[in-house]
Fold this protein.
Amino acid sequence: MITFKIKRYNPEKQAESYFEEFQLDGTDDLTLLDCLNQIKWTLDGSLTYRMSCRSAICGSCAVKANGHAILACQKQASHLVKDNDTITLEPLGNMKPIKDLAVDFKPFWDKVDKVSPYLQPDRKPSEKETKQSPEQFKLIDDASTCIMCGACYSDCNVLEVDDNFLGPAALAKAQRFVQDSRDGKTLARVKELSKSGGIWDCTHCGECVERCPKPAEPFDRIKEIMTVALEQGVTSNNGARHALSFTKSVKSSGSLNENIIPVESVGFFNFKGLFDLLPVGLRMFFKGKNPPILHKSIDDVEDVKRIYMELNE
Amino acid sequence: MIKHDVVIVGSGLAGMRAALEVCEGLDVAILSKVYPTRSHSGAAQGGIAASLGNSESDSWEEHLYDTVKGGDFLCDQDAVEEYVKAAPRVIYELEHFGCVFSRTSDGKIAQRSFGGHSKPRACFSADRTGHAILHALHEQLLKRSKSIKIYSEWFMHSLILDGDSCNGIVVSDVRSGAVEVMQAKAVIFATGGYGRVFNITSNAFASTADGVMAAFNAGLPLEDAEFVQYHPSGLYRQGILFSEAARGEGGYLLNGKGERFMEKYAPSRMELAPRDIVARAEQSEIDAGLGVGGKDIIHLDLRHLGQARIMERLPQIRQLGIDFIGVDCVSDPLPIQPTAHYSMGGIPTDKFGQVIKDAEGTPVKGFFAAGECSCVSVHGANRLGTNSLLDAVVFGERAGRAALEYAKNISHAPINESHEKTKVLELFENVFQREGEESYNDIRNEMKVIMTENCGVFRDENRLQMCIDTIKKLKERYKRGRITDKGKLFNTEIYEVLELGNMLGMAEIIAVGAINRKESRGGHSRTDYPKRDDENFLKHSLIYNTDNGIEIKYKPVIITKHQPAERTY
């Protein structure tokens, strides 16, 4: 027997959410979605959640199980059971609940809208298909598996503190066009994506890759956009400068020069940006947390350089 | 009252393609009871057909013949001809929209073999072709968001007809429960199929006959509803789809003795015979006690393809097997059985997507339909794999074009808003007020089981009659149900009850159509009438809702190039 501890919320009835427990027997071969349906159809018809295809392709049924976003139709209930044969279910995070496990996807879709999520070729298409090699197809294959379920958006650590961040799904969608050989707006796209709220606001935690139920794995796609942005010379922004400075520092000394990186990140001639750094620097200084004034290389710095050389090849 | 020039119900491939056409000249709304990218078109896996000839020489003539023969000669050949001729152009257009296609080594759209097609004709994106096209069209919708308004999570209740013309629909917002009348110069239905009527089905929970029943309840006929396609490879007991592409790539079907039994049924095409033939072969093996382990299981064996090929061409299928039953098809065969998959029948239209209401082709002005909910008929008695995505795109475009042409020079017709709205409000109130003893869940389960067991791959008079009698009783019990959620906010329970009402209606229509067609043709197989009977049944059936109950009329089949011949593979 499995106990489903489900977060219930119905503002028509009461303002606060609460947990309610349901027990089901005979759940051996059932997916979590099968179980939700059993609860709805035999125990409480008012339980509300979204679902449709039950084959992990429509992206409707993402919920949080034991604190992490999953697709309910894709997981066997028995695999999700925690202590005391319980599964705790909550609505997706970073979006407002509407009722029980259904959340408002509007901000999610609004952000998808912001990345110009459609092909923008720069010439008139030929009569037949525009050629694309299997290798070029491979570059957009993974991103195109995204089903817009919102699991990555729900568990994104940046979105929890920064509404402005486009989020993993929208950025994965963007990569699909940035690296599409048929698109003609690569430079404009990476410029746009390098602005505040874009690729450089990702903190590289990798949570979205863990949560993605498909091979879309947004953080990997974000890294690919970063690479294209740098290759295209879109470097006059804090994120790109930070990445370049970081690389340079490790390459030359084997460790991070924490005096220089912040300065290089905001830019040497960005007086306002530099001025903004001052209070932090001063506070660090007075707490004795400032790095040594003179940055020293590590002993094995030659090994690091060799790694860089091999990577370059 | 909400007002648009054109309203499209359903946002799968057909609905979105239609929207792109209409928005070139008019203001258009597209309505979905889910969100557009959640539409069931996205679940299509294997491919979309077109005679591009990218890997072997091919022609529209061959595509035409394969389709007509696959449909057991019940297809209207004039429509099929225009449809297969349009195929290469619409595929190139999808590609130009940005659709992601798998490629040949020289950069063209890759094509694979599929059941009943004599050439490798299926353009594909790994094994998620429907998903790739759905998202490409959705992208185009977003690009044109100024002229296309999307109503996500809205439910369509009824069609507003005034004599021979359609003036709008009655809808409700699932999130708020608010009922609204949508006035429109033209309405396009792209509401998909109704596989949920069956217990074993590949269809999404949303495939519940809402569109076809709205047309039927408005007095319009449904065409060829008895023809339901059972897909040969549904996951055992669950019914979810393992693409025919698995066989297109070379997969075997094995019975309990490990034999490739298709040798007995279609020696020249083997596993790549059309779906009706393969599904019947599987069911025959199972009925003869030759299923795997004596159960209703057939094995889909991909092991000989090797991991690399499976990962490149069939990655989603592999993952589905691992996630849903813990079987990795790289090392073990997948347990499958026939699953209700596609409705060949639907709302009758001409080849331009214009809905017609009788055998004479009288149009219902301002009402158009495309995709699975419609019956043109290009699929006849059995659809070939990869022809449905093509149907949705070709006829979505055509219905959109026809609606645009029709609506651009006329003004809105008056609607009695309160009258239309009250009817739906009363329906809601009626369901809310019911305090009966019956469980909607039991009724739904009984309907599904009776349909799969008695109106499935094989049918006969007695079983079909039993089906009809049972459905009639279930309809009575349906009136005595009770729901727990009496609120307005996101009440998914009441929508499931309304969907069940639609499905009960549809189940009866399918069974009545099936008992009436005393022959075996394509997907409709009668053990008491095992032969095709061209003399009496080379005709489309039109099923009407009349005051005296269900009535059946007929419409001739249009035959141009290919006279009916014996169908062997």
Remarks:
- Chain A touches chain B through 62 residues (CB under 8 Å).
- Chain A has 14 helices and seven strands.
- Chain A has a mean pLDDT of 94.
